[in-house]
Design a protein that fits this description.
The complex is a heterodimer of chains A (about 120) and B (about 120).
Chain A (H helix, E strand, L loop, with lengths): L2 E3 L4 E5 L4 E3 L2 E3 L5 E8 L6 E7 L7 E2 L2 E6 L4 E6 L8 E9 L7 E2 L3 E6 L1
Parallel strand pairs in A: 2-12
Antiparallel strand pairs in A: 1-4, 3-9, 5-6, 5-10, 7-8, 8-9, 10-11, 10-12
Chain B lengths: L4 E3 L2 E4 L5 E6 L6 E7 L6 E7 L2 E4 L8 E4 L6 E5 L8 E8 L9 E2 L3 E5 L1
Parallel strand pairs in B: 2-11
Antiparallel strand pairs in B: 1-3, 3-8, 4-5, 4-9, 5-6, 7-8, 9-10, 9-11
The chains are: A mainly beta (about 120), B mainly beta (about 120).
Chain lengths: ~120, ~120
């Protein structure tokens, strides 16, 4: 079975600075997808960024980028130029490729942004 | 267009009571997922519908939990004889199809509190 581990329960960053959230996963599959979701107090899960395992190039979405290390089974999220609106819970998630599509989530990291 | 909606937003019930939680997916989305998010945890998969049928209910914790999607659109998660341990946020997500690279879109969840 696949597992996702987020070892940082809480992180803090100064506004405009850069922060990196860590995620590791365990799988025996070769083809899969990895995601970072943001969950603000409103509870709505918002997709931040996704990475296909077959792609070597790290995904980037504006201020958000990932460091995907397939051999190490590591998938960290870097947030640049942090903004107050980035404060939220961040969840790393895994999905098998070609499957029915249910996601496997880590326990989350609570990110605080200091003005 | 309208996103995934869930009602009620919050539900408080007493131990032993029956509850129904409703999910309205994005129009045209054939795949629908239910997740349960306990306090301090990431969401955990409960059940997946493809159309009207429950294609995978392996995440349902026991036979007190049941879900239906009779017309392939709205889904209802039903919990009988509620227990305090059922207290959690119940998230619903829909997907255009269950095929990659389609993504899941989440609703805001229903917070269930069992007293």
């Amino acid at each position: 079975a696949q597992t996702v581990t987020q070892s940082q329960p809480e992180m803090s960053v100064q506004e405009a600075e850069t922060v990196t959230l860590s995620c590791t996963y365990d799988t025996s599959e070769s083809d899969y997808y990895l995601f970072w979701y943001k969950q603000p107090p409103s509870r709505q899960m918002i997709l931040v960024i996704r990475q296909e395992a077959y792609k070597q190039q790290n995904a980037t979405e504006n201020r958000f980028s990932v460091n995907f290390q397939k051999a190490a089974k590591s998938f960290s999220l870097k947030i640049s130029d942090s903004q107050l609106g980035d404060a939220a819970m961040y969840f790393c998630a895994y999905r098998s490729a070609g499957s029915q599509g249910n996601l496997i989530f880590g326990k989350g990291t609570k990110l605080s942004v200091k003005p | 267009g309208a996103g995934v909606s869930q009602t009620p937003s919050n539900k408080v019930t007493e131990k032993g009571k029956y509850v129904e939680l409703r999910c309205d997916p994005i129009s045209g989305h054939t795949a629908l997922y239910w997740y349960r998010q306990s306090l301090g945890q990431g969401p955990e998969f409960l059940i997946y519908f493809q159309g009207t049928g429950a294609a995978d209910d392996s995440g349902l914790p026991n036979d007190r939990f049941f879900a239906v999607r009779p017309e392939g659109s709205v889904s209802t998660l039903k919990i009988q004889r509620t227990e305090r341990g059922d207290s959690a946020v119940y998230l619903c997500a829909s997907r255009l199809t269950a095929s990659d690279p389609e993504e899941q879109f989440f609703g805001p969840g229903t917070r269930l509190t069992v007293l």
